[in-house]
Design the sequence.
């Protein structure tokens, strides 16, 4: 299964046996998987954040581990440590839960900054250092961190450097009445249903092949310029103290490519970039004090930017697809 669209459809169809009303979130997790990204999930308790992550791991055939973050958890509890074995007189490496394909850091903002930073090297470099040794993590490697936006007592805000490591920030809202009714009906029929009922529908070879297909998606110069204009607008907006970093513009490019591939296209349109703008950039913005006092949100800032920056026409990209990648028309 080398086609990203087929892979995404297979994962979505299988996860729909457990999840209701989270189609966009499933697609976003698939985008992160195909672009080596990490995801921050935010929502109140009980909206299926952990179930979403676990079900995704099951459907994708990924080795899954969950870490419940608390103030007393230590970095070694995540990465692992060397344990002395008296019978042999040697130290043995005991790997932590980070040695998985998909790691859920549940309620990440309950861990201390020191423990939060233990994930930085893993998320950025794909390896960890234990007792002076550098050890490579499995591939694929995806961190999904969850946090509760309403319970702040005993929590530690993620520093900007940590937030910037997450490719996407997704919010999981309360379900609509219709979706919650469907959930009640499903629970009534089978109270034990959950992630364990999700079967693996793709394997690692499928994921690696789909990644290569995403990498080959064409991005025309006007679309690249559109990305730059959007990111630079976050830095110049009157309500932002700090806008998105170059890592943000790269994430916007890669996720737009994956979105295009999932929709069966070999080229990126401005609509792909615009659709990924908020989940990619909202957690990277630092608002001014006046904006915060006025209760302006990053989502509102990005909406203002999206409406003020003119997207490119899709005509050049479509022509490039016909001509094999060389556009006949450039839209400045």
Sequence:
């Amino acid at each position: 299964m080398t086609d990203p669209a087929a892979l995404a459809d297979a994962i979505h169809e299988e996860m729909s046996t457990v999840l209701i009303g989270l189609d966009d979130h499933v697609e976003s997790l698939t985008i992160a998987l195909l672009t080596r990204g990490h995801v921050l999930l935010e929502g109140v308790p009980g909206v299926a954040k952990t179930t979403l992550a676990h079900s995704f791991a099951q459907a994708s055939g990924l080795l899954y581990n969950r870490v419940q973050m608390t103030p007393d958890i230590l970095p070694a509890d995540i990465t692992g440590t060397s344990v002395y074995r008296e019978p042999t007189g040697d130290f043995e490496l005991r790997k932590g839960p980070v040695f998985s394909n998909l790691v859920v850091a549940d309620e990440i903002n309950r861990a201390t900054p020191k423990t939060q930073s233990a994930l930085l090297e893993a998320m950025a470099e794909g390896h960890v250092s234990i007792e002076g040794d550098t050890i490579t993590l499995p591939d694929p490697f995806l961190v999904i961190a969850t946090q509760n936006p309403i319970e702040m007592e005993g929590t530690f805000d993620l520093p900007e450097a940590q937030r910037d490591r997450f490719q996407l920030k997704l919010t999981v809202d309360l379900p609509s009445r219709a979706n919650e009714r469907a959930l009640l009906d499903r629970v009534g029929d089978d109270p034990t249903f959950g992630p364990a009922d999700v079967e693996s529908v793709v394997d690692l070879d499928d994921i690696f092949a789909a990644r290569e297909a995403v990498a080959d998606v064409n991005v025309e110069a006007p679309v690249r310029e559109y990305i730059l204009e959007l990111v630079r607008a976050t830095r110049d907006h009157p309500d932002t103290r700090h806008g998105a970093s170059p890592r943000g513009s790269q994430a916007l490019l890669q996720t737009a490519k994956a979105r295009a591939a999932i929709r069966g296209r070999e080229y990126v349109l401005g609509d792909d970039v615009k659709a990924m703008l908020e989940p990619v950039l909202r957690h990277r913005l630092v608002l001014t004090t006046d904006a915060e006092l006025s209760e302006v949100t990053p989502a509102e800032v990005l909406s203002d930017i999206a409406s003020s920056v003119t997207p490119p026409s899709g005509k050049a990209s479509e022509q490039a697809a016909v001509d094999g990648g060389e556009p006949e028309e450039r839209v400045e």
Observations:
- The chain has two domains: 4-186, 212-320.
- The radius of gyration is 21 Å.
